Amino acid sequence: SSLSGGTVDAMQGSAAELPSDATPPAGVAVSRTPGSGWEQIVFNLRDHFVHDRALRLAILTVVNRQALLAHAAGPDAGGVLLDNRFFLTQQPGYRDDVTPVHLGSGNLAAAETILQSAGYKGIGHVLFAPSVHPVPPLMMRYPDHDSTDRQAAALVASEARQLGLTVTVAPVGRGLPAAIWLQHEQGSAFPA
């Protein structure tokens, strides 16, 4: 294989996930260096319920990014939350696009306010859309080979429950996007 032949300079997963005290295969050097990465929630905007901006903002507000980071990277990993999708804090052009709007703050009161302002009812119990229809259960999918994404999806589902949402967590097969997808259960699996 390329790994044992020494032709791989970097990789994510498998060898990179060896426990720090594990011995790598003969002829393979494994080193760990700090780097940046991100996790994301991808919303199916073709889904009638998930298409509503207020619902998406409320979900993204009630989710606690710090808890997700601690969960994904481990409590002692020293990860830093990035507040801009394109620039690190020390780069020209950086600005905090997240904190001013409470995204990922875990702020239940702010999430409830977003829903109330948009006309949602039953917040915290059974959520009703402004159209007076109950918001049906949502489906959150994650790559079936990624236990970190599975656990992150379960955490998001738990936090969304505070708003009166039911979120079912289920895997998708290999070869599909490495992101967590959120949609109404009867919605199409992925946007066309």
- Uncertain stretches: 186-192
Per the principal axes of the C-alpha atoms, what is the gross shape? Answer: globular
Largest sheet: 4 strands, mixed
Distance between the termini: 36 Å
Report the β-strand fraction as a percent range: 5-15%
The helix fraction, in percent, is 25-40%
Within the largest sheet, what's the order of strands? 1-4-2-3
Radius of gyration: 19 Å
Compute the number of strand runs.
4
Element-by-element helix/strand order: HEHHHEHEE
> Helix/strand/pairing class, anyone?
alpha/beta
Overview of this protein structure:
This protein is of the alpha/beta class. The protein has helices at residues 2-5, 53-62, 65-73, 108-117, 147-161, and strands at 41-43, 138-143, 167-172, 180-184. Strands 1-4-2-3 form a four-stranded mixed beta sheet, covered by helices on one side. β2, α5 and β3 form a beta-alpha-beta unit. α2 runs antiparallel to α4. It is globular. The model is unreliable at 186-192 (pLDDT under 50).
Please tag this protein with its features.
disordered C terminus, four-stranded mixed beta sheet, alpha/beta, 5 helices, 25% helix, 4 strands, 192 residues
